[in-house]
Amino acid sequence: VKDITITSYYAGHVLGAVMLLVECGGRSAFYTGDFTMVTDHYLSASKVPLSLRPDVMLTESTCCTTIRSSKRAKESDLCRKIQETLDGGGKVLMPVFMIGRAQEMCLLCERHWERAQLQYPIYIVKGMGETALAFFRLFASWGSDRVRKAEDPFGFKHVSFCDFDQVINSDAPMVVFAGPSMLQGGNSLRLFRKLAPFRRNLVVFAGYCVPGTVGNEVQAGLKRVQVEEGVMININCNVDYMSHSDHTDSRGISQLIAQVMPKRVVLVHGAEKLVDTYQPIVQRRLGVPCMAPRVGETVTFDGDLEDSCEVLASPATWRTL
Questions:
Q1: Is 297 a catalytic residue?
Q2: Cα–Cα distance measured from residue 91 to residue 174, given in angstroms and rounded to the nearest whole number
């Protein structure tokens, strides 16, 4: 674009996500957006050349103080709990984002079903999931090496789409994927209201639920929650949290900074308290000047770089323009 060069790099995170290197007039800025540094079931880790050495690196910091444990061990434990629930005659509800998280969890279940030779049905309630899966099949070449090598990586043998009435009115053991992911309404909340009072059932959250949602209260361990005005329900079912986050953790952010070797780092898209904790870690361990501007703050770099970046955001997250 005229004298501006923009180069995109594979970011992981979700199908089609990219990082951007913007170059103009001898200056450069590297913007990560959301990214991952480990391969999951359908996406590879981010792919960025060594030593890009941009003048500024703007990186997400959503999980900048989190260090995740072994993903394989957590997945094995989750599959065991799901199978035990089904063998005991219960249902498993997974409130999920229909783009990315649903496909990831479906692949995990598919592989366990094959290994354990299970026959229980796995359903995705019809809606956005159908459109999302069509895109994943169309752009499978953007996935991980395992996905690209498979003949039909998203041709699930044990997963099928269904109408909501088909699962709400059935007493048979099954796994159900439904949105929204935080039980803030819709099909997932309607199913939750029916399943929650019974000990034989299991609800699995595959991601964080923000405060103010039913999902957040359930994750916090409350045994009685309000699902609509004047309506309270008891939670007797089992609840599990599988942190299948599509954001990299503290180690991943530090790894990418060390790999890219920027002259300066700006932390964006993270909670203020977490960013304030992580900022000195970057400076001390990586020896890179690091800034964490507040919402609406303009950062001017001194010395050989006098351009500025303006940070704008909602109260919950930050984004950089």
A1: no
A2: 5
In this prediction, residue 150 carries a pLDDT of 87
Q: From the CA atom positions of the chain, what is the Rg in Å? A: 22
Residue 1: per-residue pLDDT: 67
> Which residue stretches of 263-307 are H helix?
272-281
Which pairs count as long-range contacts for 206-210, CB under 8 Å and 24+ apart, including other chains?
206/94, 206/95, 206/96, 206/97, 206/101, 206/104, 206/105, 206/181, 206/242, 206/244, 207/96, 207/97, 207/101, 207/181, 207/243, 207/244, 207/245, 208/243, 208/245, 209/181, 209/182, 209/183, 210/182, 210/316
Residue 303 has pLDDT above 70, yes or no: no
* pLDDT tens per residue, range 169-207: 999 999 999 999 999 999 999 999 999 999 999 999 988
What's the rounded Cα separation, in Å, for the pair 27 and 54?
A: 8
Residues, the chain: 321
Report the C-alpha gap between 8 and 198 in whole angstroms: 49
pTM above 0.85, yes or no: no
- Catalytic residue from among 60, 104, 110, 217: 60
